[in-house]
Design brief:
Layout lengths: L11 H22 L4 H27 L5 H24 L5 H20 L10 H17 L8 H39 L6
Helix pairs in contact: 1-2, 1-3, 2-3, 3-4, 3-5, 4-6, 5-6
Amino acid sequence: MSEPTKASNWNVPNVLTAVRMVLVPVFAWVLLAYPQDPTMRWVATGIFVVAIATDALDGNIARKYNLVTNFGKLWDPIADKALTGMAFVGLSILAELPWWITIIILVREWGITILRWAIMKYGVMAANRGGKLKTVMQSVALIMFLPGLQFMPAAWGWVAWAAMIICFVLTVLTGLDYLREANKMRTAWLAEHPQEAR
């Protein structure tokens, strides 16, 4: 019985991931170059929305057409974190979001990304449901903040802050969950390879 053919790394989902990476500096430039221009703030928000939409699109295509690859599993979350990370940093540079929120979120995001690389020996740790919900809430919060709360009605700001608080809590909790998952993967692998245990 022949082994199933592995999907090539050269596929539509991975191209969409690459496009998302390319859009990061474009988004950053528009956001930081015109912080007091309401129109350009909406342009920056639009670029962010298009870029983040490719995340849902590439995942759906990959699963539907069996194009899931280890490249996609690893680089898709990196592309997400580059985009959302730039949004958080940009908002903090503009003094529209406290730096402590951005720093804690980035430490969690990049810490888990580094962890994924570090435990590749034990297996690939793909995003779970909690992580996906966290990503959605981060996207919602950022989309509400990016047009500039100073240009929006007060009610918009209240909803934006509620979304930001929820995304912050989810980011921290799912980070702890990934740490537990990584430990379980390592423990299971070492149980199967006792000669590697030290």
